[in-house]
Amino acid sequence: MPDHVGQQLGSYQLIQMLGQGQWGSVYLGEHVHLRTQAAIKLLHGPWDEREVEGFLGEARTLASLRHPHIVRVLDFGVQQGTPFLVMEYAPGGTLRQLHPKGMRLPLQTVVAYLKQVAFALQYAHDQRLIHRDLKPENLLLGHDRQVWLCDFGLAVVAHSARSQPVQQTAGTLAYMAPEQLRGHVTAASDQYALGVLAYEWLTGSRPFSGSSIQVAVQQTLASPSLLREKVPTLPPLVERVVMRALAKDPDARFPTIEAFARALEEGSLEDATGRTMPAPEAHYVTARPSSSRGLPSGTITLLFTDIEGSTRLLQQLGARYEVVLADYRRLMRTAIEQWNGYEVDTQGDAFFVAFTRATDAVEASVDAQRALTSHAFPGGVAVRVRMGLHTGEPQRSAEGYVGLDVHHAARIVSAGHGRQVLLSQTTRDLVQRDLPDGVSLQDLGAHRLKDLQHPSHLFQLVMAGLPAAFPPLKTLDASHHNLPVQPTPFIRREQEVEAVQHLLARSGVRLLTLTGPGGTGQNTCGAAGRRRTQRRLPRWRVFRRPGSHQRPRSGRADDRPDAWRQRSRRSPTA
Predict the structure, then answer these.
(1) Buried-most residue among 128, 212, 368, 573 (CB within 10 A)?
(2) pLDDT by residue (tens digit) across 12-51?
(3) Given the residues 133, 306, 477, 559, the one annotated as active site
(4) How many domains is the chain built from?
(5) Residue 276: inside a domain, yes or no?
């Protein structure tokens, strides 16, 4: 088998072989321009034109899969007759490397692994896709040790294209369902394979062993040993759940693979005598951490949410508001957990969440908004939640995160309306080519946010089936004015600014003139006083002396310096 280290495939240089299997070899690749790393899978070739067309069709399907526990296909192609896939690089390797054959795992670890894999497979099954080759070698450890499912359907693609005999699949026979061995693959076949994984991790051995022929016969005809015969401390319900997933008849298994995972989680709450134990924290989701130790660092995407009009809802519902708040939190946490969010803080109706990937933050926001919109809240009330996303590099602290990026995200959500999702420019740049189905972006332009020195370019997620038209954003630009953007903080003039505010608020004042030697800050002082009264006194306008170096933002004629003298000679208008 040739070694391709040093070769270039597409935009990637192959720098190291990571492993090889029946259908191909996997290399660590580096983008020649961006210097980012990816996993490059080369399928054994060469392939003829018909086979290449089949591969490209399947590769497009793989690239369309978007789930936090399915490894993302970044690119694919064919070079000199050899098909290749470019995928996200999983720094933690495979679960087979982490847990060699014969190793028993703690029950809660098995539950955590199976939930992640089951959720990924349920997502695929909902799209009528079947994995067909589930095994520890195809389960990767991504960032923060999350499980990623890979090689989705590749075995079948390669098998059908290359006409490989079934004997050459001996490496995965131990995980094949009886109906799959007969050539009739269903979604329940993936459930059987996941049941084999659960059996192996809990007992340290697979249900069946022997030669390829022996394993195939046992998969079809024999019943595996009960789990508690090998591990007596396992809860009885766990044994019953796993044995049901290993039923020979697909119809006797759980109706869905997600139902299997949830039943296993419920069974894990029993002790060996059948008594229910307190529910442990999930191993793969960092929710409400007591310290910042479990929070991600580096470039992260921050999500802030709150309920629009929560005080009004509280007054309207009284004691029933507690139920509404509980439903809201449950729906939010379901979306956060599904997309690997880290719940940094929750106060009242406000969530503060961190994501390692901007695309996950968007997916969670979309899922949450859809769930909140469709949910029947008590009393038939409408719970309208606004959300703001910003990507940056905040600093971790003992309580979570600090830094301007945190304030930026908080200011973005405060500018929005209920059921609106706003994105900063940095977040938009990361997700614009990788949006969920039925979601697009609307450019809302630059807006001045409270306490931020420079304007922020904001975007809105437009989600099919959800409201897309909202009132103007609640920013400093909400009322029309001709105030300049303040380039630097205005200091050491508080007394003068307060005097301007007081004079502007006096009844009967129609014109306020600030005078002084050139360069002493009368223009800036006047603008600062006007800015602080902008919401209370929206009709006041600012005029500057001719030749002022600060140009007004408005381009209308009567706001320009050359119109100043003419306007000032007329009676002043409010």
Answers:
(1) 368
(2) 999 998 887 766 788 999 998 888 899 998 887 667 778 7
(3) 133
(4) 4
(5) no
